C-alpha cells in the first residue's frame, strides 16, 4: 500500500470481501511477513480487553506492529470509550485497524460509533473507509478479479455468472476461482466455462424445480427433477429432498412477506433477482397452502426411510402431489 500508513484505520461496510481485502492490504503493508507472529494481534471486539495495551506496545524488531479489532458493531461501551481515548494520542508505531459490517449502535443516548468515526477522520494519521455493495458493479468486479488472476472474462459470461449467483462479491469470487483453476490460470472465461465449472448451475436447476412446483407445473417439475437426479450421484435423492424442503420453506417466508407487504426477508436479499422474481410470479399466480405443502414434505421424508419403491419414486410422487 503506497503512502504513509495510518495510525488508526476504520474500515467497515456491508460488502465483506472488500472490507477483508482492505484490512489485509493494511496488515501486509505494516507487518514484515517474517515477523508476523510477533507483530500482529487480532481480536474480536466483544473480547478485546487487551487490544489497546498491545497497541501501545512497541513492535518487536520492526518499525511497526498491527492490531486488528474485528466485529466492531459488537464492541461494548467500555471498549468504545477506551478507543475514543486512544485516538487522541495513538501510538505512531502501531497500525490499529477497526473493522466490521457497520458502526456500533448508540447506547445510553450516546452514539459512540459515530463519535469514533469522526475522531478518526480528524486524526492526521487516520483513515475511514466505508465499503458498500452498491458502490461496485458486480460485472466490473468479476472482470477485474479474473484479470488479476491472469484470465479474461467474457462480458456475456460475467452477466451469466451474476444472474446465477447474485451480486455478493465473495460468492462471485469463489465461482470465478473455480473457472480460473479449471483454465490453469490463463485463457478466456466464456459462458461455456462458467456452465461447466460453476456449482451455481446446479443451484439454478434447484430453483427451476422449486418454482415449477410453486407454479403447479408438473411437467417442468419432473423435467428439472430428472436432470438433477441424472447429474448427481449416489445419495442425490436424499440431498434433493433436503434442498427442496429448505427452499419451499423459503417460498412460504416470501409469500408471507408479500401478503403483509413487509420488507424483503433477509434470506432473500442475496437470492439472484431472476430467481426471486420467478418465485414471486409463481406465488401470485398460485399461492401455497402451508399446511398442505409442509404435510407433503413430511410424508415424503418419512417415506424415504421405508418405501420399497425407492427414494427416486418417492420424489416423483412428491412432485405430483405438490403440483396436483
What is the CATH topology assignment of the largest domain?
A: Rossmann fold
Helix content: 55-70%
Q: pLDDT below 50 for ≥5 consecutive residues: which ranges? A: none
The dominant shape is elongated
Q: Give the number of helices.
A: 15
For the record, the count of structural domains works out to: 3
Description:
It contains 15 helices and seven strands. The chain is an alpha/beta fold and 324 residues long. It has three domains: 8-134, 3-Layer(aba) Sandwich (Rossmann fold); 137-197, Helicase, Ruva Protein, domain 3; 202-323, Zinc Finger, Delta Prime, domain 3, CATH 1.20.272. Strands 2-3-4-1-5 form a five-stranded parallel beta sheet, with helices on both faces. The termini are far apart.
Amino acid at each position: 500500500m503506497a503512502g504513509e500508513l495510518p495510525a488508526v484505520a476504520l474500515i467497515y461496510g456491508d460488502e465483506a470481501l472488500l472490507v477483508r481485502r482492505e484490512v489485509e492490504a493494511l496488515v501486509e503493508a505494516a507487518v514484515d511477513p517474517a515477523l508476523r507472529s510477533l507483530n500482529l494481534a487480532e481480536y474480536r471486539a466483544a473480547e478485546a480487553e487487551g487490544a489497546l495495551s498491545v497497541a501501545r506496545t512497541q513492535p518487536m524488531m520492526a518499525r511497526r506492529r498491527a492490531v486488528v479489532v474485528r466485529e466492531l458493531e459488537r464492541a461494548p461501551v467500555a471498549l468504545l470509550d477506551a478507543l475514543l481515548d486512544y485516538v487522541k494520542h495513538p501510538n505512531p508505531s502501531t497500525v490499529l485497524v477497526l473493522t466490521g459490517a457497520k458502526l456500533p449502535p448508540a447506547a445510553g443516548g450516546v452514539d459512540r460509533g459515530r463519535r469514533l468515526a469522526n475522531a478518526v477522520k480528524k486524526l492526521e494519521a487516520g483513515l475511514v473507509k466505508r465499503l458498500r455493495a452498491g458502490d461496485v458493479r458486480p460485472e466490473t468486479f468479476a472482470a477485474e478479479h479474473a484479470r488479476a488472476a491472469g484470465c479474461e472474462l467474457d462480458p456475456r459470461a460475467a452477466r451469466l455468472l451474476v444472474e446465477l449467483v447474485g451480486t455478493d462479491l465473495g460468492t462471485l469470487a469463489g465461482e470465478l476461482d473455480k473457472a480460473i483453476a479449471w483454465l490453469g490460470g490463463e485463457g478466456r472465461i466464456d459462458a461455456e466455462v462458467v456452465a461447466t465449472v460453476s456449482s451455481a448451475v446446479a443451484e439454478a436447476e434447484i430453483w427451476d424445480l422449486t418454482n415449477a412446483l410453486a407454479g403447479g407445473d408438473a411437467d417442468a417439475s419432473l423435467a428439472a427433477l430428472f436432470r438433477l437426479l441424472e447429474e448427481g450421484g449416489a445419495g442425490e435423492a436424499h440431498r434433493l429432498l433436503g434442498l427442496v424442503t429448505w427452499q419451499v420453506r423459503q417460498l412460504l417466508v416470501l409469500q408471507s412477506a408479500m401478503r403483509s407487504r413487509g420488507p424483503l426477508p433477509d434470506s432473500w436479499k442475496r437470492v439472484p433477482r431472476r430467481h426471486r422474481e420467478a418465485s414471486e410470479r409463481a406465488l401470485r399466480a398460485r399461492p401455497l397452502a402451508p399446511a398442505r405443502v409442509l404435510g407433503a414434505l413430511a410424508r415424503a421424508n418419512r417415506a424415504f426411510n421405508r418405501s420399497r419403491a425407492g427414494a427416486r419414486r418417492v420424489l416423483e410422487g412428491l412432485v405430483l402431489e405438490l403440483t396436483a
